[in-house]
Amino acid sequence: MIPASDLRARFAAALSAMYGREVPAYTTLVEVATAVNADVVAREGAEAERLGTLDRVTAERHGAIRVGTVAELRDVARLFGGFGMHPVGFYDLRDAATPIPVVSTAFRPVDPVELARNPFRVFCSMLVVDDRRFFTADLEQRLSNALEARTLVPPDLVRLAIRAAEDGGLPEPEATTLVDGAVAVFELGTEPVDRAWYDELEAVSSVAADIGGVSSTHINHLTPRVLDIDDLYRRMAERGIEMIDRIQGPPRWAGPPVLLRQTSFRALAEPRLCRDASGATFSDRLRVRFGEVEARGVALTRRGREVYDTAMARVDGLSDEAAAREWAQHFPGTDQEMAERGLAYYLRTPDGLEPVVYEDFLPASAAGIFRSNLTSDGAVDTDAEGTSWSAEALSDAIGMPIADPYDLYDAQVAAGSGDGGA
């Protein structure tokens, strides 16, 4: 029996290899991240590994995919369940500064032991086809018809994943079948793209076109973790890779890093086979996939998140130096003070405080990364009524609970040290 943690590690590694073949710039990103991580550990020693060992950080990835319907989300939820990955958190990117017509959750391990073995995460966005701010009734119907005509995850693969979830793993050769089948689901499709249909959806949202304008899904980006994202940003630019304008998230400062900082190289113009109105095929290019990288910090409590939101509003538009000074007005400069003020989660160990790594995502950063790689901002009818979604509604739709991240961190601290958090 191959346990879920090993299946998950194999799945993450196989996806990384596949994505590297499809997007060579991703391989460059991983190489640079690995070099930066090694340099940070050599420079800082044990302090560099306070938020995870070098082995864990080097192996760590998160992926991002997009689906079109509740039924598709339900299938991928069961697929990820076979790898010990469960839905955590609810994100509504329709509320972003530049609205994107999706709601999202993330699939990841929830047990700290499983996270330590392999913390692979997948951020999964679902198109909200009935939201009148984006889609007219006519476009909704045609889009729904197109989505219902496809099958993203083969039924046999879903059944195998359910078995793996129930048994906590799989024997061979079923283990290899599950990993290979899951990777195949997220490979870039080869079927010609109806270019007129794709363009019609892209006028509403580039994300809508990427989801509903093709007959399959694919990894949109695969994200390594780095210990010094500012250094990585510089090194990638020096290699001639076009990066987005800035690093998303809190500023770099001298105190404890918190939550998540992200950046990426820009979406690539990739060759795709397209089809015109007459049915003839031709070669074109679509900008869809990009290379994201992240730096993770300590998880904030609910109280800490309130401070974070205030601080982020205050640093918006400031220079790096001014942002760091402003940030220090909101957060204390040591782990001890962070814990004493109930701003972040820590485990109390015989050696002192051990920060709890933030394992989740930030809607503003996710939307910022999405927007920076979109072909256009699309169109939104702000006078129309939006469709209501919540974590509870999404949980009911996919037939499984969506965990609240704060509840998971609270439980981790309670089990690990009693009172190290809020």
UniProtKB/TrEMBL annotation:
UniProt enzyme class: oxidoreductase
Cofactor requirements of the protein: Fe(2+)
EC number: 1.13.11.93
Record carries keyword Iron: yes
Key words, A-Z: Dioxygenase, Iron, Oxidoreductase
Record bears the keyword Iron: yes
Top-level taxon of origin: Bacteria
InterPro entries referenced in this protein's UniProt entry, alphabetically: HGLS, YdcJ_bac-like
Family: Belongs to the 2-oxoadipate dioxygenase/decarboxylase family.
Listed name of the protein: 2-oxoadipate dioxygenase/decarboxylase
